[in-house]
Amino acid sequence: MKNKHLALALAAAIALPASLAHAQAPVPPQQPRIVVTGEGEATAAPDLALLSLSVMREAKTAREALDANNDAMAAVIAAMKSSGIEDRDLQTAGVQIQPRYNYTNKPDGTQDAELIGYQVTNTLSVRVRDISKTGEILDKSVSLGVNQGGGISFANDNPSATITEARKLAVADAIAKAKTLAEAAGVNLGRVLEITDQSFAPPPGPILAKARSFEAADAVPVQAGENAYKVQVNVTFELK
After folding, report:
1. Which first-to-last residue range defines the signal peptide (predicted)?
2. How many CA atoms lie within 13 A of 239 on its CB side?
């Protein structure tokens, strides 16, 4: 038993200096580096118009208001389809039924609430793939009963090519900045160690540079403009 304990003690004594030597080994210095942010932007003409159209009707009873709203919205949807809008591009965004009251003040400062009717609002989201028809569709929808909403924005069905172009411009911008900084500091750029990027979709409205107007006779004038896609990259370079 004593021999066994002696062997374990000797093994620990031999291993301890080795582990200390490993722990105290110098850490190799990190290669000097520089991190540069580049930005790129590319634009594309939109190929989708996104509409939000609402029909509001009022009546004495909720049933009467809903029936009137249903008739008006059915006419609007039929008009959308006759203009070439497919079923997949028509989506009900919400239906609201709200009571309406008439409030009268009483001598004691309180109010009497008299129910005078109901209001029904049906909202339809529409994707227009032929944006040259946007003004015509807006005009037709109002003629058939749309009396609220009218929100409009423009988008691109597949912006990947535009975003790719913005990425290339962002990387080129980062390289140019890095070269300028390295030259000013009297050092040389080495290889690229890391690249990260972040893409920014355009805001819900158009950028009106190079705007195109789609306007038929008696139609709502519409400016489609361009959508701008922005990319920001962080590039890490070695320094020599």
Report:
1. 1-23
2. 16
Give ranges for CATH 3.30.110.170 in the chain.
29-45+159-239
Instruction: Give CA–CA dist 230/156, Å, rounded.
Output: 14
Element (H, E) at 113: strand 111-128
Question: Within 13 Å of residue 47, how many CA atoms lie on the same side as its CB?
Answer: 7
Residue 125 has pLDDT above 90, yes or no: yes
Domain range 48-155, CATH class: alpha beta
What pTM was computed for the model? 0.64
Q: Which H or E run contains 151? A: strand 148-155
* CATH 3.30.70.2970 domain span(s) along the chain: 48-155
Q: What's the CA gap between 119 and 73, in Å, rounded?
A: 14
What mean pLDDT comes out for the span 4-16?
Answer: 50
CB of 73 closer than 8 Å to CB of 122: yes
Architecture of domain 29-45+159-239: 2-Layer Sandwich (3.30)
The model's pLDDT over 72-81, given as tens digits with 9 standing for 90+, comes to: 999 999 989 9
Q: How far, CA to CA in Å, does 199 sit from each of 14, 47, 222, 227, 229?
A: 57, 20, 28, 14, 7
**Pair 118, 104: CB distance under 8 Å:** no
